Automatic annotation (TrEMBL), chain A:
Name of this protein: ABC transporter permease
GO molecular function, one term: transmembrane transporter activity
One cellular component (GO) term of this entry: plasma membrane
Keywords for the protein's UniProt record, in alphabetical order: Cell membrane, Membrane, Transmembrane, Transmembrane helix
Keyword Nuclease: no
Membrane topology: Multi-pass membrane protein
Cell compartments where the protein resides: Cell membrane
Membrane-spanning segments: 15-34, 65-83, 90-107, 113-136, 145-163, 196-214, 280-310, 322-341
Coiled-coil blocks: none
Keyword field contains Transcription regulation: no
From TrEMBL, chain B:
GO CC list: plasma membrane
Name of this chain's protein: ABC transporter permease
Origin: domain of life: Bacteria
Topology in membrane: Multi-pass membrane protein
Organism: Pelagivirga sediminicola
Pfam families, alphabetized: BPD_transp_2
Subcellular localization: Cell membrane
Keywords: Cell membrane, Membrane, Transmembrane, Transmembrane helix
Gene Ontology molecular function: transmembrane transporter activity
């Protein structure tokens, strides 16, 4: 078989493959639910209900989507320039670490000063963490996929070391967790009385800013040019190395904001289970959003909904929650094929 | 015990070879994929799936060797998914690879929960036992290390020879290497680049899964979540370190494993006891990054690695 570009795709060709990908994902999830001895319709219904069915469920989904918007943006920005940042997990913890260090009483400032300071320093920490592999890539040609992946493991061990050492909460009954943040270091509620913090607002604002950078600035243009064709960009006089470094700083900073928002907004202290893989899930979010920053928000809500819904479904009918992860992996793989098929047709030899 | 005395103990070298074995399988698997031009980031998840599949097969009554075969087959299955998406469809090998890792890991965990609901600790199996080779295993220090291992370790070493022979001494190996260097030339000879690349990814993925199975069937006797813990990514670094050659990759794996075995022992010395254990656990990952940096200058990357081949284009 061979792929042939389609010159003028019809509406059917642009819409049918993604729709089929989603349908196939649902069918596969149903079959897996049946394998677990459950009624597939009730499983899917329970997932939807658990994600969006009540005010409580919806707020839970929005809270879960918040870090995913940040990591999704981080991945989208990087992948668009073909900088393969798989290290959002570590960058998230870098941001969280900064908040845990500064916010537990070290800086005794009013909230109006303390929160922006922590956010900016968190971004700096995340940016530096991605700067290392980005420099190794630009200067020495070391593949950033493997280095960013390995740094995830190194940094998590580093956080674990600090949580069992200098950062350990003396009042923590021996658990490896950091001391609670002071009130001034906590992000306020977005709407009084609702369990949703300003991290979500910040995530939406970030998505708009990233969209503006991507579509309305020279940097955004250069990033896209580098991503589309590195050699052509070089030939056109774009400083490819410098653009990649800037991309890395932006991407690392965005991922770190996820850590900032989780610690200052939701948890109030740092533990090793702060993130159940938000950094990796950000890759799925970004891909489902076709690397579009505004799409990231929608994709993050969808992905968060599946996770939250699967948790609640699992409690009700006992199908393992890993069904959510399988659904997302399947959706990711089928969606990349579907997107391809909107632009190419398969020709038999 | 003095650090230098560690090198003279047989148990140290035995541990090093044992730690190296799963890395050898998986590194060879990745090497085959990359020599054919496909980066397989599914490795981490495929190792998880292989670890579970082999162990589960034995737990449900199959023999040890059939268990290894089951792991290999499961690996090939994920390899098939990976290769369909990356070879004929030519999709991003980064995205597909990570997707396959996610799919393999999550479906393994799902299967584990379905097969063993409500267990707090996973059941154990009777794993491969060390097989002492007469006379040779009596050589001081290296004898027990090289000749008193489990059959699966011997298979790992045999695989290095087999893979090297096939890659460099057979028409098939030539075709695989050419598919990764100059696919146009392969197509010009009337061979199918698609078939060669897909086959390489499937066989390579099978070997990765056997590497995972080594963990549950030889190194330990049970399956735990997170037990692969980045070994797959380390193997990708080892392929680069080994300059895409089986012999050098073997050397890299042993060197790496020796360092790992050393850090475990240094932890137990008075010197090591004062250092947080996380520092030691970080070492393998830091070492992998250093290996990548050192080798970056003289890496002989396959020419068409990560370049999709579409017959229509020239």
């Amino acid at each position: 078989m061979r792929l042939e570009p389609v010159a003028n795709p019809t509406a059917l060709r642009t819409l049918a493959p993604p729709a089929l990908a989603i349908a196939a994902t649902v069918v596969i999830a149903s079959l897996l639910a049946m394998l677990a001895g459950a009624n597939p319709f009730s499983v899917l219904g329970l997932i939807l209900k658990g994600a969006f069915g009540s005010k409580f469920a919806l707020l839970e989904t929005l809270n879960r989507a918040t870090p995913l918007i940040f990591t999704g943006l981080a991945v989208a920005v990087a992948f668009r320039a073909r900088l393969w940042n798989i290290g959002a997990e570590a960058q998230l913890y870098a941001g969280a670490l900064v908040v845990a260090i500064l916010g537990a009483g070290l800086l005794d400032w009013p909230a109006i000063l303390l929160l922006p300071t922590m956010a900016i320093l968190a971004m700096v920490a995340g940016a530096i963490l991605l700067l290392i592999p980005a420099l190794l890539k630009v200067r020495l040609g070391v593949d950033e996929v493997v280095t960013t992946l390995l740094i995830n493991f190194i940094f998590l061990l580093f956080v674990s070391m600090l949580l069992e050492g200098p950062l350990k909460d003396p009042m923590g009954m021996g658990w490896p967790k950091s001391a609670r943040l002071i009130d001034e270091a906590r992000l306020p509620r977005l709407i009084e009385g609702l369990r949703l913090h300003w991290g979500f607002g910040l995530a939406l604002i970030s998505a708009v800013i990233v969209w503006v950078i991507g579509t309305r600035t020279t940097l955004g243009y250069e990033m896209r040019a580098v991503g589309l064709n590195r050699n052509a960009a070089e030939f056109a006089g774009i400083p490819v190395g410098r653009v990649l470094i800037k991309t890395a700083l932006l991407s690392g900073g965005l991922a770190a904001l996820a850590g900032f928002s989780e610690v200052a907004g939701l948890k109030g202290n740092l533990t090793l289970d702060l993130s159940p893989g938000f950094g990796y899930t950000g890759i799925i979010v970004a891909m489902l959003a076709l690397l579009n920053p505004l799409g990231v928000v929608a994709a993050a809500l969808f992905v968060a909904g599946i996770f939250v819904g699967a948790d609640s479904m699992s409690r009700a009918v006992g199908v393992p929650t890993y069904l959510a992860d399988i659904m997302l992996a399947t959706a990711l793989l089928l969606m990349v094929v579907a997107i391809l098929l909107t632009r190419f047709r398969v020709v038999r030899e | 015990m003095d650090i230098f005395e560690i090198f003279l103990t047989a148990s140290f070298w035995t541990a090093a070879i044992r730690i190296a074995s799963p890395l050898i399988f998986a590194t060879l698997g990745e090497l085959i994929c990359e020599r054919a031009g496909i980066l397989n980031l599914g490795i981490e998840g495929i190792m998880v799936a292989g670890a579970f599949a082999g162990w589960m097969a034995v737990y449900s009554g199959l023999g040890l060797w059939p268990g290894v075969a089951v792991a290999f087959a499961v690996g090939m299955g994920f390899g098939l998914i990976h290769s369909i998406l990356t070879v004929p469809f030519g999709l991003s090998q980064h995205v597909v690879g990570l997707g396959v890792t996610l799919l393999a890991t999550s479906s393994t965990y799902y299967a584990y929960r379905l097969a063993l609901p409500e267990v707090t600790s996973p059941p154990s199996i009777t794993p491969f036992q060390p097989l002492e080779i007469p006379l040779l295993s009596k050589i001081p220090v290296i004898g027990p290390a090289l000749f008193a291992q489990t059959p699966l370790t011997y298979l790992a070493f045999a695989m290095v020879v087999i893979v090297a022979l096939v890659l460099y001494r057979t028409p098939l190996g030539l075709a695989v290497r050419a598919a990764g260097e100059n696919p146009q030339a392969v197509a010009a000879q009337g061979l199918s680049v698609t078939a060669i690349r897909m086959g390489a990814v499937m066989v390579g993925s099978g070997l990765m899964a056997v590497g995972g199975a080594f963990l549950t069937m030889s190194a330990f006797n049970s399956f735990f979540f997170e037990m692969v813990s980045g070994r797959g990514w380390i193997c990708i670094a080892l392929v680069v370190f080994g300059a895409w050659k089986p012999g050098k990759a073997l050397l890299g794996a042993i060197l790496f494993a020796a360092f790992d075995a050393l850090q475990i022992r240094v932890q137990q010395t008075p010197l090591g006891a004062g250092i947080p254990y996380q520092i030691f656990l970080m070492m393998p990952y830091i070492l992998s990054i250093l290996a990548l940096v050192v080798m970056s200058r003289r890496a002989e990357v396959p020419g068409a690695l990560m370049v999709p081949f579409n017959k229509g284009e020239r």
